[in-house]
Write a structure and sequence with these properties.
Blueprint: E1 2-3, E2 8-9, H1 15-33, E3 41-45, E4 49-55, E5 64-69, E6 72-79, E7 98-105, E8 116-120, E9 123-129
Antiparallel strand pairs: 1-2, 3-4, 4-9, 5-6, 6-7, 8-9
């Protein structure tokens, strides 16, 4: 079969090859346009508590709100854009600014009265103790005689 755009004889048209090419184009488009989620977060849990760390460089802790309801942690805040001095021109801006909100379902209920949060070197660390009512209990087995 002759393919005019190639100026030569080529492969036979295949709908599967066309769908694969379309999928690659869509993936390429989405990877360019989707911004990374901010802030980047790590979450780990033990039997006693959940630890959440979030990278929030440039965020003033005064502009950060942490709420816990049932087993949902919500981080809300804002990062102000860096202001240019007179005569300066932005060459490249990759760090996002503005408001952000992230919500996370925790693996169990937490005691919201005992939640602790700290901020050091651009990293927020939140410790969420497990609610006593939600902790596993060892059940004693009584022997019946």
């Amino acid at each position: 079969m002759f393919w005019p755009e190639h100026g030569r004889y080529g492969r036979v048209w295949s709908p599967w090859r066309e769908m694969e090419r379309l999928q690659q184009d869509v993936n390429r488009l989405l990877s360019r346009e989707s911004a990374p989620t901010f802030p980047a977060v790590n979450i780990w849990a033990s039997d006693q508590d959940v630890i959440v760390t979030a990278e929030i460089p440039g965020v003033d802790p005064a502009n950060l709100d942490i709420t816990v309801a049932e087993n949902i942690l919500k981080l809300t805040g804002s990062r102000k854009p860096e202001e240019l001095k007179p005569g300066e021109v932005s060459h490249r801006r990759e760090r996002a600014s503005g408001e952000f909100t992230r919500s996370f379902r925790l693996p169990y209920a937490v005691d919201s009265g005992k939640v602790e949060a700290g901020y050091e070197k651009g990293v927020l660390k939140v410790r969420l103790p497990r609610a006593e009512a939600d902790k596993p209990r060892k059940i004693a087995i009584k022997s019946q005689k």
